[in-house]
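Many introductory courses stop at the sequence. We go one step further.
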Amino acid sequence: TIEHFPDCLASADIVLIVIPSYAIDSFLIQNYTLLKEGCVLVDATNPAGGKDLKGSLEALNITSDQWVKAFNDTGAVQEMQESVRSTMKLTTSVCGPNDQCVEKIAALAKYLGYSPTIVPIDQYEYLQSCQDNISWEWMHSITVMMSLFAIAFTYVTVQVSGRPYFQWYTLLARHSSKMFAWTSVWGFALSLLPGTIIRLLKQMTNIVTPPRFLIWGCSIRKQV
């Protein structure tokens, strides 16, 4: 309960900060002195142009290096898409000024089922903004689906434009459902194709490393 919150802070070895980034200043002002000595603060926020934990510590003149940036590069979408039976683990980058704290949080991430990657502190700005934009998987899958829709649109347009009494203003009203349906079916089929080809190649040629374009296709199949 909220009444026991100060006691929890006083006994915690690790505090995971998952509040909105604009509230970090208030959290530190009210609770920093309550933290246990040696407690590691884990910043999982994405400031979207504002301050994160590092910026708040500097603004409040708190010189502690007992903090780590982690878990901000994974979100609800990735968690919901992850299968319990999947052999692939969610990845997260871990970065901070104190090596011992970084190793501790990397071990925690591994215990929780993640595949942690330790990022040098000089690359912190990259990690800080890793979810300020759409990931490459979503950008590539959007490009693929828009390309499929363009093909479906072109095909349907050519097909129906030659019919007697065709009127252009009826194209979208009467045939858009067909365009979307074909795009969806083709997208679903395309998402299954890379994995199927890789399985066939492994069965027929004992290939160890599949071609890069097939790995790319497997990487975006959930988004597609």
